[in-house]
Amino acid sequence: MILMQGQGVSKGVVQGPIYFYRRAEASAPPTAAASLEEEKRRLEEAREKSMDQLSALADKAREEAGDEAAMLFETHAMFVEDEDFCDCMNAALEEGCTAERAAETAGEQFAAMLAAMDDAYMQARAADIKDVTRRILNNLMGVTEGGIDWEEPVILAADDLAPSETLQLDKSKILGFITQGGSGSSHTAILARTMGIPAICGLGDQLKAELNGRMACIDGETGKVAMDPDDITLAAFQAKLEKQQEMKTLMETMKGQEDVTLDGRHMMVYCNIGSPEDVAAVLSNDGQGIGLFRSEFLYLAASDYPTEEEQFKAYKEVASAMEGKRVVIRTLDIGADKQVDYFEMQKEENPALGVRAIRICLNRPEVFRTQLRALYRASAYGRVAIMFPMITSVWEVKECKRACQKVMAELDKEGIPYNKDTELGIMIETPASVLVAEELAREVDFFSVGTNDLTQYTLACDRQANDLGKFFDPHHPAVLRALKIAADAAHKAGIWIGICGELGADLTLLETFLAIGIDELSVSPSSVLPLRAELRKSIAKTCTLEKLEC
């Protein structure tokens, strides 16, 4: 038996085989070509496999989302079979290229040709040819789409996972996550909590690739991993698993109950999501709204800028599914640890303090305008609220509001319906926004505190660093006092304030949040029912601010 200790970042106990994530190569390997006939055979097999995959994806999309969704995969299949594209690949083979290099070369040429065309529709097809090329390359190099080539569900192991990588995973095959790096605020941890599965980060070098396929038990609460557990360890894990199932059954009784304290103080318990697919988890856990829809995941999952129509469909789907419950959608929040290649951002020495989030939107008004149009159009189909991240100054809020006014005027002129009373809010996640909270509150309809970044910037601690440990402390009195200042400013202006950071699910701070006056907590779907159970046992008028003291 091998015992490992990491940082538990998503609660739960699970047992299963370890499977190490297979990361796709960024480019074709520089190996020499075999014979011309062998390279042609390999390329043809990869094309045929690509066609089979695209056919299956089209069928699934048609069944789940209709003909329009299926058309994307059918278009990709047309490219795989395109005569000119195939001729280009074959010509490269004739020149002595490997099958991988031939596919990559043809893809680069066709993408550049399409992007250079005057027709907007054909320009958009450049992204399709890039996806097609990537699929053929993956099949040539044996890279499994979704990163998991295993029949049964697995405990997925990796050095760490980028946000874009987590989006490609076949989530039905994942029992839990274990990673060498990462932290409680990493995207792997956030994804795990959204999915409601156990996760452990920070295992370091003790998590080795040669452990692939070995059976393990993991405890996402304690951060313990037992590889090839002995009978005693297995019995202890099994007992905890049974207790976990009992608690899950108990939590089911919380569904349909009010989010209210024993003395009648109501609190909004909402959910954080990253894609329309996450709404199912919100509904199954009885979330009363969505306090954070991370719209950047639409950009991270794409190979080119998402169009207005693509974004509109995603926002509309979520708004419609929530049937009148509030859906707070955060505008584009990339930069820092969330990089998107096609944005072609300049390399920064300290990206956490650089051009990110609302700074990108205000610097690239056309990107911002496209998203705002999609958001306002979606507001006609549900209770959409728009939230701007990384705000530090009043002038930024006024610029955002001006951009909204321009979009609303456009939609009025075009006769496109939208909700003229769409709520506008901002994220409080910097000391600057806390210190000018009273002025900011007069400009918006609500505040939502991003506690991960607020902690990072208040304590001067990089949230992505694995070795800061106890120095990154969301319970620090300075962070909690900042919450109190923001809450007082919000209520003075007559607006509501919530928390959409991971700290909102911390049950040990619930009474502090009640004492501070927090109106809403937005958490991972799996945290809703435990939070509701704790809230319904609390007495708001007896809650104190003692944790704000040093």
Write a concise synopsis of the structure shown.
By secondary structure, the chain is of the alpha/beta class.
Task: Describe what this molecule looks like in 3D.
This protein is of the alpha/beta class and 550 residues long. It has 20 helices and 16 strands. It has helices at 36-65, 67-81, 83-94, 99-115, 120-140, 163-167, 187-195, 231-252, 279-284, 296-300, 308-321, 358-363, 365-378, 394-414, 431-435, 437-441, 451-459, 477-492, 510-516, 528-535; strands at residues 2-5, 7-10, 13-20, 154-158, 174-179, 199-201, 215-219, 224-227, 268-273, 290-294, 326-330, 383-388, 423-428, 446-449, 496-499, 520-523. An eight-stranded mixed beta sheet has the order 1-8-7-3-4-5-6-2. The protein has an eight-stranded parallel β-barrel with strand order 9-10-11-12-13-14-15-16, surrounded by five helices. Helix 2 (67-81) packs across helix 5, helix 3 packs across helix 4 and helix 11 runs parallel beside helix 13. The mean pLDDT is 89.
Which features characterize this protein?
alpha/beta; 45% helix; 550 residues; globular; single chain; eight-stranded parallel barrel; 20 helices; eight-stranded mixed β-sheet
Low-confidence regions:
none
> What is the helix tally?
20
**Global outline:** globular
Helix share, percent: 40-55%
What Rg do the Cα atoms give? 25 Å
- Could you give the count of β-strands? 16
| Strand fraction | 5-15%
Which sheet architecture does the biggest sheet show? 8 strands, mixed
Q: What number is the mean pLDDT?
A: 89
Classify the secondary structure makeup into a structural class: alpha/beta
